[in-house]
Write a structure and sequence with these properties.
By secondary structure, this protein is mainly alpha-helical. 67% of the residues lie in helices and 0% in strands. The chain has a single domain, classed as Orthogonal Bundle (Triphosphoribosyl-dephospho-CoA protein).
């Protein structure tokens, strides 16, 4: 697929995800947080376009430089927005975008994500660490091994020959995005994208976004919540989401959805990882439509 088209779709997916409302526990068009606003995410979605386009142009499959482009997109975002608005989206979107660029059909995309991730380098790992530090994002590598906040972290990566895939694999047990990127993205390709692709044919784009978000959260406990509180709390939120989703056809579903959004907001439960997975799912859905 053409690099320009892929970049536009990445921007569209980012905009649609943050616009979905009331998307429980996250910033959306009718909910700002103290440290970030709806408009921050809109700007973030726009400014990644040039980097995605560059990443998808003249791809070297053996050395796709995914870390370089993740860092470049996060650094560009940081020029405009001084918050971590899109690290997760960029991490998910970049390998999918590059995979689309080298695929002859939509059916090739997921397999090519796997190929590209396996071809990441030590330089990619170092660039990813720089991106995480710019975004000031906790949880991706702040364990005993290869602590992203350590001054010596990148030297350790180089000494031990750890690629971006390797360090994400280490983070996978406690970080859903790392797990997705090292296990062929099952939440995106098997849950999120099919859900969004179906609902966008039957409902409004907003409803499709919100229902996709709820579907992912109901099946995949959010690791941002589990890191902040506990895995039990994350599971509790997923179970509450499942109960709510079972009422999606009820006359008062909109009211119940708003109440759930208020509950998560007031209790500071922020399923931010689910939002990233939702954006990636919307991205994949629109890629499929454009391949077709």
């Amino acid at each position: 697929m053409n690099a320009n088209e892929i970049a536009k779709i990445a921007q569209i997916a980012s905009a649609l995800e943050v616009s979905g409302y009331p998307k429980p526990g996250n910033v959306h068009r009718t909910r700002d947080y103290d440290d970030m606003e709806f408009e921050d995410f809109v700007i973030s979605g726009i400014v990644i376009g040039d980097t995605i386009r560059e990443a998808c142009t003249d791809v070297d499959i053996e050395n796709p430089k995914l870390g370089k482009y993740i860092l470049q997109a996060v650094a560009e975002t940081d020029r405009w927005i001084k918050n971590n608005t899109n690290l997760g989206i960029v991490m998910m979107t970049t390998p999918i975008a590059v995979a689309a660029a080298i695929s002859d059909s939509f059916d090739d995309v997921r397999e090519n994500v796997k190929v590209l991730m396996s071809n990441t380098s030590v330089d990619d790992a170092c660039d990813l660490y720089d991106a995480i530090n710019i975004a000031d994002a906790g949880g991706m590598g702040d364990q005993d091994e290869y602590d992203v906040a350590s001054d010596n972290a990148k030297n350790e990566l180089r000494q031990n020959g750890q690629t971006m895939y390797d360090v994400l694999k280490i983070s996978a047990p406690w970080d859903m995005l790392a797990r997705e990127m090292t296990s062929d993205m099952p939440a995106v390709f098997e849950i999120g994208y099919p859900t969004y692709h179906k609902f966008k044919e039957e409902k409004s784009q907003n409803d499709a976004c919100v229902l996709t978000f709820l579907t992912i959260l109901s099946q995949v406990p959010d690791t941002l919540i589990s890191r902040k509180y506990s895995s039990d709390e994350a599971m509790k939120i997923s179970m509450m989401t499942r109960d709510l989703l079972n009422l999606k056809d009820a006359d008062d579903f909109g009211e119940r959805l708003k109440e759930f959004d208020d509950y998560l907001f007031n209790n500071k439960y922020n399923p931010g990882t689910t939002a990233d997975l939702t954006a990636a799912s919307i991205f994949v859905s629109y890629l499929k439509s454009n391949f077709d």
